[in-house]
Amino acid sequence: MTNLFDMLNKDLFKSLTSLNGLNRKISLLLLFFLPTGCGVEVSSIQKEGDENQNINTKEVIHEKMKVMGHRNWILLVDSAFPEQNADGMETIVVEGGMLENLEWLLPMIKDAPHINPVIYKDLELDYLDEDMVAGIEGYKSDLNEILGDQIAVPLLHEEIFEMLDKEASLFSILMIKTDEVMPYTSLFMQLDCGYWNPDQEAELRKKMSEK
Q: What is the pLDDT of residue 65?
């Protein structure tokens, strides 16, 4: 069924085409603001745009991951984590909290054949409780479930900062910033070689020293 507003707009446009000069410009401007009756809500358009933006962001991160390797870092951080001015650090802002983004980021890293993550977390997180941060116990439980058999090594927050400060001068660091609002929830992933593990490296060095 033809929409009434569409019919009116079409007839009005035909009439306006016969006008010239300033009157035509003003009339066309008024026509632009008439309702179209198309039935598309702005909220649905915005939602679709946000989803497309998230997909594009993941694609960008996936492409960047292809050029990263041994001794590079990927940080997944909460919203208060400070922006770094080190030359080797790049920041990408994503929508959603820590857990929501970890659910797609960790498999993306593990599926890459050339890298394997060594994960660090803030030691302070282990000492937070519900009296300090509401919902933190549920967060820690969900975090452990997502990590599965992946170990997250606890280190003091300042110690991790010192590590990053040294590494950024030599190796690139990708910081993915979420909108998480719980403290000490950031995760720090140092990339290792995906097809050569520490045991193999130790065996190689031992063999080399024997000759």
A: 97
Residues facing 193 on adjacent strands: 115
Contacts of residue 50, defined as CB under 8 A and 6 or more positions apart, other chains included, come to 95
Report CA Rg, the chain.
27
* Chain CA centroid to CA 127, Å: 27
Q: What is the Cα–Cα distance from 197 to 73, expressed in whole angstroms?
A: 17
Decide: helix, strand or coil at residue 161: helix
Three-state DSSP string of 57-100: HHHHHHHHHHHCCCCCEEEEECCCCCCCCCCCEEEEECCCCHHH
User: Is 80 a residue whose pLDDT tops 70?
Assistant: yes
- Please state, in angstroms and as integers, the Cα–Cα distance from residue 141 to each residue in 75, 148, 197, 198, following that order: 20, 11, 29, 29
Task: Please tell me the pTM assigned to this model.
Answer: 0.74
Q: Cα dihedral sign for 133, 134, 137, 143?
A: negative
